[in-house]
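Q: Here's a chain of 261 amino acids. Please give me its 3D structure as C-alpha cells.
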Amino acid sequence: MATRLHRSGLAVALALAVAPPLYAPPPLVTGDVPTADKETFEWYLGGRYVESESGASEWLAPFTELVYGLSDRQELTFETAGLSQDSKYGLADSVAGTKYVFVKETERWPGIGGSFELKLPTGDKDRGLGSGEFDYDVRLRAQKTWAWFTGIVNAGHTFVTEPEFGGIRQSREDTWLLTFGQEYQVARKTKLLSEIYYVTRDEPSQPNRLAGNIGFKHRLWEGFTVHAAVGTSLREEHRGGPELRVYAGFKYEFDAPWRSR
C-alpha cells in the first residue's frame, strides 16, 4: 500500500513537472519582440504560484532569469527556479535560450522576432521535480504599438521528449501555443497588461488549455521595474487549467562591466 501511494504521489508530481511548458519572461506568458540592449543585463527575480483544476499546486520560488544583450538584435537567456510541490522542494528544470529580432518595429510595420529555448533536465525527476528530459521550444513573435496601446502575438511549438517514470516511458505530445497580449500605457511609468493564450495538451487524455492573465508593470526608478499578474482558465470548470496562476517580482537592468562607452 505504501509503495502504491508513493508511486501515486510521484505520478502527480511528475504530471506537474511536465505540464505544458510556457517559456517567456515574466509576468505574462506572451513574450515581447525587443531584446535587451547590447552589452546590458536584465535580471528577473520573483515567485510564481500555480494551482491546477484538480487542486494540485506548485510554487516556483525563487524564480530567476538572466538576459544578456549580445547585439542590438539578439539576446541570450538563462532561467532557473526552486520548485515546491507535493511537500518536496528542490531545483526545477532550467531553461537556456536566445531571441533574435528579424524586423525592427517602425511607425508602419510591426517588429518581428523569433526565439529558441532548451529545457534542461536539472530537476530531480525521482522526486517529481523535473522530467529528466530535454524539451525544445521555438516561437515566432510580432509586436506593434499605436499611441498608448501595444499588441503582441506569439505562435510557438514545443518539441516534448517523453519522460520515463518507474521504468515506463510516459506518453507525451508536442504542444502548440498561440497568444495575444496587450499593454496599455496608462501613466508615464505604468503599464496595465492583459493576455489570452491557448496551449494544446501534452497528454493524450487531457484537455487543451485556454486561459488569460491580467497584470501591471511599474518603473520605480531608472532600470528597476516591479510587475505582477494573476490569471485563470477561461474554460468551464477550469478545464485544462490553471485554476489560478499568480506571479510577482521585479526586473533590474544594468550595464555589463565591459560595455562600450
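Q: Can you summarize the key feature?
A: The chain has one domain: 2-255.
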